[in-house]
Predict the structure.
Amino acid sequence: MLQNIYLNKLKKISEPVRQFGGLIILIIIVIFSFAILNNIFGEGEELIAKMKIEEERIEETRKQNELISSLPSGILVFYEGTDHYKLSLEQYEKVCNATKIIPQRAIMGANFLNFRAHHIYTINGNKIDETFVKWNKENNKCFAGFTVSGNNVGVDEKITVNGEVLNFLSTGIDTRVYFIKNF
């Protein structure tokens, strides 16, 4: 009985008002649905934080690439007494942070001073497990190194060789560690 009364009242309302009411109800349902989905799947603040970190990383990479492309090709040093391009302290730090490559030449030079590392490197087929180039803020120096192991040839030994980076090699596209002082 009560339903019939309300149904008759709805029928008496003009068509544009009913359509507008239906539109409002539809909008409320859509907003409510998105609110529920956002609570279930939304990462909101976490996603924004991740995006900001990624943007900062991209900007830092762009700055490092600009620095590297502005340096002359060849050997880059940080010390006096050479004809090679001398880096300022700021450039030295930035080049260190931008460098990811340690070529075999630098590895072999450092290996000659560590006989056991050289021996494992030779018997394991010249396999390097890990390389690293890191800036030391306390000493204002760049350090690089690598880890060799004989796991693939039955030698249960792992040796890390590291030392101060004395110079870099700039190819115009990237920079590489040129010499590791580990004595």
Q: What stands out?
A: The first strand starts at residue 74 and ends at 77. The chain has a mean pLDDT of 85. Residues 15-41 form the longest helix (27 residues). The radius of gyration is 32 Å.
